[in-house]
Design brief:
alpha/beta, Rossmann fold, seven-stranded parallel sheet, 9 helices, globular
């Protein structure tokens, strides 16, 4: 997160312990940097040790945690620590026509985007219920959790499912002071989207579909996440904040 990107951001997360999955690059890294800038102690979770070490060098508030978001050992460790904030960001995509999706791709995308996200959220909730201070969770979904798109049937299915999970968790956990929301970005410039956006025709299509006329930056998503985790969003739960430049408003 550059100085220009954080200069006017005033959300206060001092004293909060946050966990961010998929944290080593792209959206996750931007979210980690901003939460740390806002004062949270941020446990940055990913499989890439070198990338996490580089990220941790940005702030004394960032704690690298080399782990797989789908691993049962990580879920147990997360449930055992004291967590105030969770950003469920780890995810993947494998665009292809529905008729061509093999079982292994179906299982891999569903396993990370939905099953692992559920188990990570469950572990964080167990921590929050035990320490009794409430908490806030943000699930990173997608504009594709609100609409459909050719070549993305599995991805859309998982993101629609994560939106449903967000709502159900919000209703169930509200009496415990735990807020649950989602942030649903459009196409953002990240390593995951780079191969798709490298195609000039696809990039032109995406830009045309976004009324604001530009592809999003990771910092656009990070700002929405920080707001939803903060006390400024104290009456916001069970909703999806679309960071899509107006794509789904058409």
């Amino acid at each position: 997160m550059t100085a220009d990107a954080t200069r006017h951001f005033s959300v206060d997360l001092q004293g909060r312990v946050a966990v961010v999955t998929g944290a080593s690059r792209g959206l996750g890294a931007a979210i980690v940097r901003l939460l740390a800038h806002c004062g949270a102690t941020v446990h940055a979770v990913a499989r890439g040790a070198e990338e996490l070490a580089a990220l941790a060098a940005d702030s004394a508030n960032i704690r690298p945690w080399v782990a797989d978001a789908a691993d049962a050992g990580f879920h147990a460790a997360l449930a055992a620590m004291e967590v105030d904030l969770l950003v469920n960001n780890a995810g993947t995509n494998a665009p292809m026509p529905m008729a061509d999706v093999p079982d292994d791709v179906l299982d891999r995308v569903m396993g990370l985007n939905l099953r692992a996200a559920y188990l990570v959220a469950q572990a964080a909730v167990r921590s929050m219920l035990r320490h009794g201070r409430g908490g806030a969770i943000v699930n990173i979904t997608s504009q594709m959790g609100h609409v459909g798109s050719p070549g993305r049937t599995v991805y859309c299915m998982t993101k629609h499912g994560l939106e449903g999970l967000t709502k159900a968790m919000a209703v169930e956990l509200a009496p415990n002071g735990i807020r649950v929301n989602s942030v649903a970005p459009t196409f953002i410039e990240t390593p995951l989207t780079a191969p798709m956006l490298a195609d000039p025709a696809f990039r032109a299509f995406v830009t045309e579909m976004i009324p604001l006329g530009r592809i999003g930056k990771p910092e656009d998503v990070a700002a929405a996440v920080a707001y939803l985790l903060s006390d400024a969003a104290g009456m916001v739960t069970g909703t999806s904040l679309l960071v899509d430049g107006g794509w789904t408003a058409r």
